C-alpha cells in the first residue's frame, strides 16, 4: 500500500492527476451500426466524386450530365467534356464563353475556338471568325512552354485573321495580321501570299510584288502584272508557275497564261495553252471565248465559231 501511494503521488506531481496501476479502458466503443451509418454515405459520396472526376477528364465517359457534382467540383473540366459530344456550333461557343469567364488562361479551349473560327469563316461570318481566331491566339500565347507546333498553330490562326479581314475588305488590319503571322512563324509561303493579297487590296503594289516573290506565288504575281499593264513580266511569272507545276497543271493558270499570250499577239502559242486548259476542264466560259478569239485572228473561222458556240453552253 505504501508503494502504491508513492507511485500515485509521483504520477500526480508529474501529470497533475492521480492514477492507479490498472485503470479500465475508458475509450468510447463505436458500435457496428454507427460505423455502417457513416460508412455507406461516405462510400457513395466517394463513388460519385470519382465518377465526377472521370466524366470530366476522360472523353470515353459521356455521363457528366447525370452527375451533378461534376459541374460543381470541376466546372472548367465539365465544360470541356461537354464540347466532346456537342456538334452545335452555338452551343459550343456558349460553353467556350463560360469557360473563358471561369478560366481565361486555360489553353485547352484553343482547339474549340479555332474550329469555331473556321466554321464562321466558311459561312462568311467574318467578324465572328476574327473574334474566335483572336481568342484562340490569346489562349495559345498563355501556354507555359510553347512548342514549335504551338508557334505554327498561332501563325495559322493569324493567317485566318488576315483572310477574315480580307473578306471584310479591311486591308490595313489584314496587313497587320499577316505580318503578325510571319513574325510568329516565318516558314510558310502562304503567309507571304496573304500579305501580298492584303497589299494589293491596299494598292501597295511594290510591296505586294515583293511579298508574292517571297511566297513564290507566280500566278498571283502574274495577275498583278496584268493589272499593272506589264504583260512581259506577267508572261514570265505565269511561265514560271506553269513550269513549277508541270507535273500537276492547273486549268485556271493555263488559261491565265493563254490570255497573256493572246494579249501579246502570240496567237499560236495562246491557242496551244487554251487547248491544254480545256482538256483539263471544259467548263471554262472565258477559255472558250479566248480560244475563239485567237482562232479568228488566224482566220480559222469555222473553228472559231464552234468555240464561240461551246462558250454559250457553259454557265
How is the topology of this model organized?
Layout: H1 2-15, H2 32-57, H3 68-73, H4 75-84, H5 89-102, H6 110-122, H7 126-141, H8 148-168, H9 171-184, H10 189-201, H11 205-215, H12 218-228, H13 231-244, H14 251-263, H15 267-280, H16 285-297, H17 301-312
Overview of the molecule:
By secondary structure, the chain is mostly helical. The chain is built from 17 helices and no strands. It has helices at 2-15, 32-57, 68-73, 75-84, 89-102, 110-122, 126-141, 148-168, 171-184, 189-201, 205-215, 218-228, 231-244, 251-263, 267-280, 285-297, 301-312. Helix 6 packs antiparallel against helix 7 and helix 7 (126-141) runs antiparallel to helix 8. The longest helix has 26 residues, at 32-57.
The ordered H/E elements are HHHHHHHHHHHHHHHHH
- Percent range for β-strand residues: under 5%
> In percent, how helical is the residue content?
over 70%
- What is the quaternary state of this protein? single chain
The helix/strand class is: mainly alpha
Mean pLDDT, rounded to whole units?
Answer: 79
Q: How many E strands? A: 0
Shape: elongated
Q: Termini separation (Å)?
A: 123 Å
Number of helices: 17
Report the biggest beta sheet as strand number plus sense, adding barrel if it closes: none
Low-confidence stretches: 59-66
Global Rg: 37 Å
Amino acid at each position: 500500500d505504501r508503494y502504491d501511494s508513492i507511485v500515485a503521488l509521483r504520477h500526480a506531481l508529474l501529470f497533475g492527476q492521480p492514477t492507479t496501476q490498472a485503470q479500465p479502458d475508458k475509450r468510447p466503443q463505436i458500435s457496428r451500426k454507427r460505423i455502417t451509418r457513416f460508412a455507406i454515405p461516405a462510400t457513395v459520396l466517394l463513388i460519385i466524386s470519382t465518377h465526377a472526376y472521370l466524366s470530366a477528364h476522360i472523353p470515353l465517359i459521356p455521363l457528366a450530365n447525370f452527375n451533378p457534382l461534376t459541374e460543381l467540383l470541376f466546372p472548367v473540366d465539365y465544360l470541356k467534356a461537354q464540347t466532346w459530344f456537342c456538334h452545335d456550333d452555338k452551343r459550343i461557343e456558349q460553353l467556350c464563353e463560360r469557360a473563358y469567364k471561369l478560366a481565361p488562361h486555360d489553353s485547352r479551349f484553343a482547339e474549340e475556338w479555332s474550329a469555331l473560327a473556321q466554321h464562321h469563316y466558311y459561312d462568311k461570318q467574318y467578324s465572328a471568325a476574327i473574334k474566335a481566331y483572336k481568342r484562340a491566339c490569346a489562349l495559345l500565347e498563355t501556354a507555359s512552354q510553347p512548342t514549335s507546333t504551338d508557334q505554327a498553330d498561332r501563325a495559322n490562326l493569324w493567317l485566318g485573321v488576315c483572310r477574315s479581314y480580307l473578306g471584310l475588305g479591311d486591308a490595313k488590319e489584314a496587313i497587320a495580321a499577316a505580318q503578325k503571322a510571319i513574325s510568329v512563324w516565318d516558314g510558310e509561303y502562304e503567309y507571304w501570299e496573304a500579305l501580298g493579297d492584303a497589299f494589293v487590296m491596299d494598292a501597295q503594289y511594290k510591296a505586294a510584288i515583293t511579298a508574292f516573290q517571297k511566297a513564290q506565288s507566280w500566278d498571283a504575281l502574274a495577275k498583278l502584272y496584268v493589272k499593272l499593264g506589264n504583260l512581259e513580266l506577267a508572261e514570265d511569272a505565269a511561265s514560271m508557275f506553269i513550269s513549277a507545276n508541270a507535273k500537276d497543271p492547273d486549268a485556271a493558270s493555263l488559261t491565265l497564261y493563254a490570255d497573256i499570250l493572246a494579249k501579246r499577239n502570240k496567237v499560236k502559242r495562246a491557242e496551244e495553252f487554251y487547248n491544254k486548259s480545256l482538256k483539263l476542264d471544259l467548263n471554262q466560259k472565258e477559255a472558250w471565248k479566248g480560244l475563239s478569239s485567237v482562232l479568228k485572228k488566224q482566220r480559222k473561222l469555222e473553228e472559231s465559231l464552234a468555240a464561240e458556240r461551246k462558250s454559250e453552253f457553259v454557265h
